[in-house]
């Protein structure tokens, strides 16, 4: 078992109607001017943005707003947000949306609180020394960014998708009303569920002596998301199922499922980041498209872990042959992806990268051959290329 | 499923040798003078206190110390601590010990940051509006006070044991090195494990529609503690078992196991507080002594919950008769208590209260007939008396 740090200072306000509390929550932060940051028109159309504005008005909070965040949020809008915050003396950012909006808010927060180009942090050229305070009204269960330390931004120059993590960016509060996620399209709901599961699975698959308490929590979390993802395919307005998935989303990425581990593998996330940067696919769907290929490529490095996963998570009978059990678990996960209409290969994403493009993805993912990714099995540029290639078509 | 708030701002630094970081952790709090608060001589004898002092010295932190906290920590020492902090301008309290030391530190913190008698808060006469910042070096896995909002103090005048909870008292950081718990006597280790389990069980047994994610986490947490408690009876120096129990202790009482519930029952804790106040028994042992009697008395109010507990936690076969399954679960828990040398009735605690004393306990627990306790079944003074009476001897 490894030493670990666990730090989740975000105050969670969870349940029906909780968005009405946002004004008071912002007020408690003792800030003077708020930037309300959001994405497309959906929060306008649903009336949520108006309810948020009303709550801020009632609490006597001064604010301005900046919309337009897109999935795989763009650096150009981050720059725009930084300028706006600086010129208007904004000292708090309220993200109303999902992971993309929250990540964009975090990037703006870094940009305001630190000199120089904010992209430097995402390029790992230097470390941030602070971040403007962030609050969240969550509308999509997926990224876990409402409680996590991470933020992922896409730079349109070269379509590079890069992440940066620090405790400075942990949200002060997160308002989480599962009702707000009920109108999400099926595809986005399922894609979010895969993202949540993968945040736990990336930590679960590792090469260290694990903590039993963490393992069992992770296994139960993944099972719970799978069960409720299936329910939501039939009953998108099922409150309890939405709530289970929403809370799982936060717990999957706030650090809880990594306690006592070495930090996890994260190769699938790295591989998907390049796909998402180049082809703008939904993050969870991109993860599902490469996971099977990754799992088959690395499972021999720790068959006992994959076998445990098969039995405890996927309900595979505990067979005599570890490798066979492990493989059945991977197949069962792919069957689940299909059941919730998620891809099991890259072509299922509706894209068909050329061999040259796959090579380019691998080169980018290895940061031009400067690094390996993963820990279950360390992957160099050739491994990455092979995993992309195997993921192109199923079987 | 109920709405809930979840707030766990404590920074956890977990693992081998982590007490060496305490100086830097205190320094990051930007305080000018620290009160190091501790209990008996064990932290002196073990050398831990010296290591803590050395770490503070190295970080250039000015401090003074106050020892002498006893189990069921006393109000008189709290008053002494408050005077000391005020006269010496202390602005941070470092608790080096278990739940009693941490609870005493929280009470001192309330007393310094609020005018008037600190006991008022524990008597629920008024609310605190702040608390001095607290840090923890944990030496006993049990109370969960290192991450919880609660504090329990015993007033020698009348031997009243009362609790007070507020987010102000959440520790800024908790240093948790499982090695520090290795020398605990068997009885204290087992008593701590029961306390941890009960913090989860008090939340698990309730009358609301539960959250599946929370239920599964709770069930796994209890199973993990039971498994490792048994290991520790044979191998007190088993690091992994100590670590599993220590982390379970924090998760059991930081709020995680109550998410989506109505807050839980807590009748056993209330009943034990009176026992502990009058007879000064170990808290976990006191809980084990009354739990079986409580469970049998209330199980008919929600047999399906007790049956689920029997199957999912105690490994009882899922039988056709819910009540029978529920009862088997209670018996299995009592068998576990015996296996780790914990009591299953009050006489097992080595005390033999008279009928008059049992009546007095019930009167005190009902705050002189002013309140009921519990939610699985609301208990009035006569119910409490009956539970104490049934708990006197086993069977």
Care to describe what's here?
- The structure is a homodimer of 395-residue chains.
- Chain A is α/β, with parallel strands linked by helices and 395 residues long.
- In chain A, 48% of the residues lie in helices and 13% in strands.
- Chain A contains 15 helices and 8 strands.
- A 6-stranded parallel sheet of chain A has the order 1-8-5-4-2-3, sandwiched between helices.
- In chain A, strand 6 and strand 7 form a beta hairpin.
- The first copy, chain A, is globular, with a radius of gyration of 20 Å.
- The model of chain A has no long low-confidence stretch (mean pLDDT 95).
- At the A-B interface, strand 1, helix 8 and helix 9 of A face strand 1, helix 8 and helix 9 of B.
Secondary structure: elements and pairs:
The structure is a homodimer.
Chain A: E1 4-14, H1 22-27, E2 33-38, H2 42-45, H3 48-58, E3 62-66, H4 75-87, E4 92-97, H5 99-113, H6 119-122, E5 133-138, E6 150-155, E7 160-165, E8 173-176, H7 186-204, H8 212-234, H9 239-253, H10 267-279, H11 283-298, H12 303-312, H13 322-339, H14 355-365, H15 381-392
Parallel strand pairs in A: 1-8, 2-3, 2-4, 4-5, 5-8
Antiparallel strand pairs in A: 6-7
């Amino acid at each position: 078992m490894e030493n670990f740090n666990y730090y989740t200072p975000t105050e969670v306000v969870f349940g029906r109607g909780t968005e009405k509390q946002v004004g008071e929550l912002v007020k408690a932060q003792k800030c003077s001017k708020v930037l309300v940051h959001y994405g497309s028109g959906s929060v306008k159309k649903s009336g949520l943005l108006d309810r948020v504005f009303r709550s801020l008005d009632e609490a006597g909070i001064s604010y301005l707003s900046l919309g337009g965040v897109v999935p795989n949020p763009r650096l150009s809008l981050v720059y725009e947000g930084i300028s706006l915050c600086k010129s208007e003396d904004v000292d708090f950012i309220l993200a109303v949306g999902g992971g993309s909006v929250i990540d964009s808010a975090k990037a703006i927060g870094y940009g305001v609180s630190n000199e120089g180009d904010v992209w430097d942090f995402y390029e790992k050229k230097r470390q941030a020394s602070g971040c403007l305070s962030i609050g969240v009204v969550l509308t999509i269960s997926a990224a876990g960014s409402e409680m996590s330390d991470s933020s992922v931004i896409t730079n349109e120059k070269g379509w590079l998708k890069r992440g940066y993590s620090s405790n400075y960016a942990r949200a002060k509060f997160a308002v989480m009303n599962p009702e707000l996620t009920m109108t999400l399209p099926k595809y986005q709901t399922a894609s979010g569920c895969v993202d949540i599961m993968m945040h736990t699975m990336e930590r679960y698959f590792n090469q260290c002596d694990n903590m039993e308490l963490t393992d069992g929590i992770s296994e139960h979390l993944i099972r719970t998301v799978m069960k409720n993802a299936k329910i939501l395919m039939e009953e998108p307005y099922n409150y309890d199922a939405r709530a289970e998935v929403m809370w799982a989303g936060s717990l999957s990425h706030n650090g809880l499922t990594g306690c006592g581990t070495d930090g996890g593998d994260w190769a699938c996330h790295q591989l998907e980041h390049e796909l998402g940067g180049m082809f703008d696919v939904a993050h969870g769907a991109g993860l599902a498209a490469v996971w099977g290929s990754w799992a088959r490529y690395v499972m021999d490095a720790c068959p006992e872990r994959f076998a445990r996963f098969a039995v405890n998570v996927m309900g595979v009978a505990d067979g005599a042959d570890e490798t066979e059990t492990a493989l059945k678990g991977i197949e069962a996960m792919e069957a689940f992806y299909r059941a919730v209409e998620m891809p099991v290969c890259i072509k299922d994403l509706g894209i068909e990268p050329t061999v040259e493009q796959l090579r380019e993805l691998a080169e980018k993912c290895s940061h031009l051959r400067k690094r390996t990714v993963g820990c279950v099995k360390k992957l160099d540029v050739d491994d990455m290329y092979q995993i992309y290639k195997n993921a192109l078509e199923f079987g």
